[in-house]
Amino acid sequence: MKLVLLSGGSGKRLWPLSNDSRSKQFLKVLVNPENEMESMVQRVWRQLGAAGLSESAYVATSKAQVEMIQSQLGSAPIIVEPERRDTFPAIALAATYLYSIVGVSLNEVVTILPVDPYVDEAFFNKINELEQLVLSTNADLALMGVTPTYPSEKYGYIVPKNGSEAKVGATDYHVVDRFTEKPDEETAKALIENSALWNCGVFAFKLDYMINHLINKGYPIQYEEMVKQYDKMTKISFDYEIVEKAEKLVVTAYDGYWKDLGTWNTLTEQMDTDQIGKGLISPCSTNTHLVNELDIPVVVLGLDNVVVATSPDGILVTEKNASPKIKDMLKNMEQRPMYEERRWGSYRVLDYKKFAEGQEILTKRMCIQAGKNISYQLHLKRSEVWTIVSGEGEFILDENYRKVKAGDVLVIPVGGRHAIRAITDLEYIEVQRGSELVEEDNIRLYLEWSEIMEQSKPV
């Protein structure tokens, strides 16, 4: 069995910590068994490893999240979407990758799951049962639903067909009758009485089911060709394109712990501390959380049931029950991400200005981890000035190599080919000036430092 973890999200629900490049699954607000901070995706990947599933797992994501995943998961295999086009295109792309690049058998089972469920280890043991369920029932899809603990209006429900209960080995399952999306509380109560399950987005199918669907729709089944045609695929969810049209669906119930940490009120319920970052919460503040990513202290005084979250992207002060509304409030607000993690470290935007004549100036604080490097690259629409703040490194500009240290100032002209590698943890202030300061102006020539050094000569 192969597992594909879908990593997407617009980064609005846990604003201002989340943004378009750092969605909720990457926020390091949980604590691992070694008492270190970890993100939701790191927690899930750790649990997959404990269940013996990580060697068979792939992460499907957009280009914007690749470096964040590399930073947090290291060498986890990644299937990269050329652009975001909803869950059906993402899963179709993953299927063609497994089929034509990895060489997975058409008879092998593929299981899809979100990258960020907050669950215990029993969840992944249950996932293991889906393979046999697909193979033994000849179902188009085998789903895993969560046994509800209350009549929630936030989740979709999988409704089983009456009298369809059966068993494969030790696994009980039902034939699926229908789906109900986010019902009101009274409807949810009635659904639960009829054994309905929360839809947690976990399902499995034989690879040939997906490949045959692509053939019937006229889509390519070779990964390289799918990538070329990806922008022509319809933006549609897997539920609408596949699940609702499938002839035979079965579902098995998971009755262990499961929670969607998609809003500030649900996330803070699982945090082991009420404060992350600089600041103070007064003793008279009850059930209040502070998450501060800025370098200045934040003081919360006399506020109950409140979340205060700060980052370079903004400041949020919200009553906990109101926090789910943040996504709707931000739907018309466009802003470039002000903090990003990359495979080499992280950066934070300190200042951005756009002048009337069209020139832009962007100031960043860059942090490169020891032994890591940025790619050998050039920019056609901007120049840069770097001031080394701390640490030591190696710098190359137009094939000229030199070592750098705190206090050095490096000037990179438009079109200058450059890269830097941290010998020790390295920090520098980068000032960009140009007509268009965008990620698309990063023209990468070489990625690995060994390749970059082959181009260099000492100054």
TrEMBL record:
Every Mannose-6-phosphate isomerase type II C-terminal domain range: 342-445
Domain Nucleotidyl transferase residues, every copy: 4-272
Alphabetized Pfam families for the sequence: MannoseP_isomer, NTP_transferase
Protein name: Mannose-6-phosphate isomerase
Keyword Isomerase: yes
Keywords attached to this entry: Isomerase
Taxonomic source organism: Paenibacillus mucilaginosus 3016
Single GO term (MF): isomerase activity
InterPro entries, per database record: Man6P_isomerase-2_C, Mannose-6P_isomerase_type2, NTP_transferase_dom, Nucleotide-diphossugar_trans, RmlC-like_jellyroll, RmlC_Cupin_sf
